[in-house]
TrEMBL record:
Pfam families: Lactamase_B_2
SUPFAM superfamilies cross-referenced by the UniProt entry: Metallo-hydrolase/oxidoreductase
Coiled coil (residue ranges): none
SMART domains per the UniProt record, alphabetical: Lactamase_B
Domain Metallo-beta-lactamase stretches: 53-253
Gene3D superfamilies: Ribonuclease Z/Hydroxyacylglutathione hydrolase-like (3.60.15.10)
Keywords from the UniProt entry: Hydrolase
Protein name: MBL fold metallo-hydrolase
Amino acid sequence: MFLKKLTSLRFTLLTIITTVMLLNAPSVFAESKPSIKVTLLGTGNPEPSIQRFGPSVLVEAGSEKMVFDAGAGTAKRLWQLGIPLGNAGPFFLTHLHSDHTVDIPDIWLNGYVATPYGGRKTPLEIYGPEGTKNMMMYLRKAFDWDIHGRERGPGNPVVAFTATEIKEGVVFNRNGVVVTAFLVDHGHPDLTPAFGYRVDYAGKSVVISGDTRFNKNLIKYAKDTDVIIHEVIAANPKLLAQSEAVRGIVGLHTPPDDAGRVFSAVKPKLAVYTHIVLLGNSSFPAPSVDELVPLTRETYMGPVVVGEDLMRINIGDTVSIEKLTLPAH
């Protein structure tokens, strides 16, 4: 009953439908039954921002509720959408930086609580690069006291996980949903492997870049996708010229002009920015979010938007955007 009321409330709240201009049509509108629904759970970076939670993308295709990365606040965003933690997954990690993984313990452990927001009955299913099994094994050890108590508490849940370490290629194929992992370039030998993902379902697709700088392999796997969700970084030019540290950070990510080159080669129906990093200081203010699209226009003239937390992209015969306004629990 609680979830039914939440669902009813969600669709009676103000929903802004944004018209997206396509390459071959004047405009598109929201469809009633998109093949794939993509919801940005978090569009931020390591900064502890209440407006932009840590990187995470929910992709709903068929019966699957796949989550790509689990940055800070992912559990809260899932529950804002009315999705119990116990129903979320499988989870796919682009790489093992903490800002992409820190909410895994919250989702995993609280997902087993016998409450409306928990209720998991099966092991948490997680896919990621080399090191994923080790990370999950040590999380199990770190929370041993907690897990011991849960497994002897109400309902006696078995708190478990399955961790699969992946290589490039198809890593998931179930219920008509195919997930393909591909290697990207996070800019430093110590930050390998790092992956992006492509999801295909019912003739539609979405690509999630993960953390990367300009990458031809991403272009190869993303070619002609319906939607690409791509990271972005921008720094004050004067700060960039003066600071070796800032140049180092920028070298791990994708500036707007390079992202535009990716989009021009991929030719998506829509490009969406996430994992937004804007660098500045008291002397040299950071670029604003509003500057990202104009900077992208130096190399790309197609449809592109700056993602926000709880922005939903509906992928069907057309592509549309909803900006969801949901209550906090």
